Amino acid sequence: MFPKDQPLAFEEPAPIRVSVAQISAVSVLVVAYLAFAATLLGYSLWDRLLTR
Asked: Considering the entire predicted model, what is its pTM?
């Protein structure tokens, strides 16, 4: 599908638009939730390490 000398970062804009258009609201909410949870976990662990 992709030429071996062309990285995925330089993919044509059309397939990227199609992929983004197919994202559901649930997917966006799941990613936001996981990012929020990971941030809270990371900051709380870092705080515990700094207070030792």
From this structure: 0.55
pLDDT digits (tens, 9 = 90+) for 20-34: 889 999 999 999 999
Helix (H, G, I), strand (E, B) or coil at 1: coil
Enumerate residues 6+ apart whose C-beta is below 8 A from 2. 8, 11
Residue 51, token pair as written in the block = 């207070």
Residues 6 or more apart whose CB falls under 8 angstroms from that of 8 comprise 2
Polymer length in residues for the chain: 52
Angle made by CA atoms 28, 13, 18, in degrees to the nearest 5: 45
